[in-house]
Amino acid sequence: MKSHTLSQKIFFAFFPVLLLIAGCGTWENFTTYFNRYYSTKTLFEKAEKLILAQKKDLFDTEEINIPGAARKQLTGVIKNASKILQFNSDSKYVGDALLILGKSFYYEKNYQKALRKFEELIATQPGSELILETRLWIGKTQMRLNQENQGLTTLESVKQDAIKEEETAIMQGAFIEEITYRIKQKDYTAAIKSANEFLKISDDDDMNAKVWYELGKLYFKNKDYTNAKKAYLQVIDIASGYNITYKAQIELAKSLRNENKLEESLKLLDKMRSENKNAEHYPEIDFEKGLTLLQNNNLQDAKDLLIKVDTTYPGSPFSAIAKYRLGEIYEKNLLNFDSAKVFYQQAKQPALPKEYKHDNNKKVALFNSYSKLVDGIKRFSRQIDYINNPDEFSKDSIAFYRQKEIERERLLSEQKNKTTPANTNLTSTTNATPTSLLNEKKTTKTKTTTNTTVTKKTTKSPVLKKVTTIPLRSTLSADSLRSLILSYQFDLANLYSTEFNLPDSVYKYFSYILKNYPDSKYVPQSLYALGNYYLGVGDTLKADSLFMEIYKNHKDERIVNSAAIMLNKPLIDFDYDPAKNIYNTAEASLEDGNYKKAISDFYNIYKNHPKSRFAPKALYAAGWTLENELSLPDSAAQMYSLIKLKYPTTIYGRKIFDKVSIYNQEMKRRKILKEEKLHFMKRPVMNIRINNATRILFDLKNFILHCSTN
Predict the structure, then answer these.
(1) Cα Rg for the chain, rounded, in angstroms?
(2) Rounded to an integer, what distance in angstroms lies between the CA atom of residue 536 and that of residue 492?
(3) What is the DSSP string of 107-158?
(4) What are the C-alpha distances in Å from 484 to residues 476, 508, 608?
(5) Which of the four pLDDT bands, split at 50, 70 and 90, describes residue 663?
(6) Residue 397: how many CB atoms within 10 A of its CB?
(7) Single pTM value for the model
(8) Nearest alpha-carbon partner for 219 in 233, 206, 237
(9) DSSP 3-state assignment of 429?
(10) Alpha helix (H) ranges present in 419-477?
């Protein structure tokens, strides 16, 4: 130990002499390394480690978010590396500084600056051993700058050179970048091809295990479950880490399920469940087993296991997914829409993985619509009962408020029991039994009597009708309520047809509409829906007869063309407008200078086709011609006024609004002046007085002249 220390002292004592012998360049490299490069490199490695830790998978296509700490470190790296280029440009670490600078700009998503630094390295350091790695980063940067063709060419060149030079890490980086791009483009076939190429030349088992795992996922996305299974088996065979081995096993179970090898899938999942090392993954294992049981038509066991996942692991992503799957079971397998709605709503929580959120939100909205329609039909029907029989309203009101009172007393009793020792018998504060308990199905054979004592009088009390919402009398008439019911029934039938795919319900509701509301606006759509129903059950004759009824009797409805397609009949042009040709003719007359004919044709469009989209346009053209070509503003104003009166919301109505208003104000002003003038002229006394005053002034003038002369 002493001899080792002595040798170190001797080395450092003679080290300055060695540097002098080696030359000034060595001293520059030495001082640069210890003063700047070492700390810069260390700081960059820390930042890069934090950044790459955000990457979930080997071929993760999502943009990496830079942690705040890493962003701060990169700022320091850029500052220090820039100083090396500025103050240590003669050292051998210039190339390293340029590469670190380029990588730092790349991670900051400043790709143009990154590319300039990489290109500067290649231009100024032609013999550097960093050239190949720099070309890899150029390829990566080109991909981020959306220069995909250049980037792929660069990466391919890097791959080939890295293989020749046995630069494994650079070769891996080029493959990863290319495969990630293919996956992002959803070109899974090309991604699979590149991954297989990589596996042929790579001898790194840890990296190969990751690539085999990702390859299995790619096969799975392509629905090639056989090859997916083979890939996951390769992972299990060569992987040394627990996490990737577990993930490969769970994906293998999914692949077996999708291959319909259900017993093999269940066997594998049971084996995984029996191993204590997988304890933290029990939620996922139980969840996948539940899905496999469901596919095996073991509905009850599947439901029970998913409920177990939901209740045993609250807050887990698999609890949230289990809720979603339970919603599907109640919707599609059990046709219990009320329970389905509850599970979908409960699944709407932060723990639900994002790939489920969109579908779950759609389900929540769908079942909210369903409940609104069903509840609305019940409510409107009951309100009609209240109109026809007012006593029903009184009965429901009494029942509702009695139930509220019973619920309040039950809650008070429960609160009181919580503060009472368990071995104390309590007597209920009410003689009435909650109707919710009377109607509730018993789940146990025996019940303790420590909480409440029910007397014989209680059991004989009549059970009130259950009313869950407060009864309300409608302000609408019975006919208006029936119209609302019809509208809701039609919308509900459409939900059964388009969303739930329940043919029996489709038939029931649309048949009911046709039978009970034969003159309603919903008849054509109902006929078409029933036609599709009969097509579904194979009765093409009945279907064609319904489509023909639409085609013959409902030609003014756009759905007639859907029926025409089914019958292979000519389609009806709903966009045809006979006024279009008349307008074109009038416009030609206007261009030829035949103003009177043009104005007549324009006006006739309004008279004969007032609902045509050309009517306001024609009136405007007539008014413009009268105003600008014939200088007849009053006549033009009449045309403009028609537009303002009949088509105020059209573009032409808005265009002439101010002009018509100003014209009308001017006409009103002129009318007032005219009326005042007429009124003035009709006052004879005033006229006489004016004449007399004039005569007096004339006489006075003559008198003054006469006096001055004398």
Answers:
(1) 44
(2) 19
(3) HTT-HHHHHHHHHHHHHH-TT-TTHHHHHHHHHHHHHHTT-HHHHHHHHHHH
(4) 10, 18, 37
(5) confident
(6) 16
(7) 0.68
(8) 233
(9) coil
(10) 435-439, 456-459
